[in-house]
Write a structure and sequence with these properties.
By secondary structure, the protein is mostly helical. The chain is built from 17 helices and six strands. The strands form two sheets. Strands 1-2-3-6 form a four-stranded antiparallel beta sheet, covered by helices on one side. The protein has a two-stranded antiparallel ribbon with strand order 4-5. The longest helix is centred in the C-terminal third of the chain and has 34 residues, at 378-411.
Amino acid sequence: MSNTSSSPQYRNKRIAAQLATLLLITAIGAAGVFRIDLSSATFIILGHEIWWSNFIFSIGLGLVLVTAPILTYKTVGIMWCGWACPQNAISEWANNLTQKMLGKRASVDIGETLQVAASKNKLVNWLALGLIFLLASIVLSIIPFLFFYSLAETWGIVIHPVGANKSTLIFFGMIVFMMFVNIVVVRHAFCDYACFYRIGQRIFKTNKALHVSYDASRSSDCTKCNYCATSCVTKIEPTNIAAYDSCINCGECIDACNRLHQKSGTQGLLSFKLGKAKGAFALRSHARNIISRHNWMIGSLFLFGSVMTAAGVMAAQVHKPYVPTRAERLAHSAATFCQTQCISERTACQHGDVAACYRSAACECQCQLTRDPDSPSSNAWRQCVRNSTANAQAAKSRVQLAGNGHTLAGTGK
């Protein structure tokens, strides 16, 4: 009897690959390798500022984005979806957590009914699930946000959201909202109905690419237990996968079949295959397929697009971000700090209390004066404190007089 491992053969590796992809995408955004500047309609790539109207770059990038997926369809199949795609990784995590908190039949997939287990249909379970999804949405939203704002700006919003620009906060809030909706209800529906990569897979994928294969010669060893199908992420029949099916090459069905057959010391009936042959001949055949006439043309377009994209980047002017002076950084830091110290007055002002608006101004000016009494602006801050305090008292008096007037009118005096 041969020794086979009881641990999944692909699952842990796949989770590691998904996490590595998320970290890589986060690192690209945090390091400023690629950023979108909406205010100037430009891309910032490797320190170069590229206008969206840059013909060479736009055409080159378009060719790369069209041909790169086709090349993957014809080589590693749909492995990107199962092993790297953040949307699929988040959806799988959300599905697993939902089933853990609400029961194994708690599914939000289109065409299925959310069946909550009676023993888990408790308010605490729903609240815990919602809170976890909300926290995950906030954390995950930082990743796309980094492709629009620098790491310093993003960190500033995280530690001082009160002092952040309102439009920036609204933008981040929109990302959080969309991420929350995605995690709670969308999940794999995006993959099935909105993902252009998946649509392309159904058009170009062939059985000559990497795919899950069923060993029909050993069909007598199959117990017809349906274990592979129940383990399938996309809920298809792994023993009869067609090229246009929604298989994502995750390997869950292979692990499931191997776990079942390890009891008898045999290998499962499912495995990854390149083409229809086996061993070294499969690799040779696959290599010939990659450089066939059709793929050669696509590969040439991909290389041509890559060269045009690189040329567009290198020809663009170097982006020189504005670097504030030390005095400006200190002033911004002090202003942000003083805003947090006067939060109660600012809140009352936002609710329509005019006197509180003046008190907020006086509070912030006094805070600035206390932090840096020798500043050249100290006289202006003292004047601000005096004027704002006087205006706050005057506004309060007007409100009191107006209130007394209403009282006298009500009594008829």
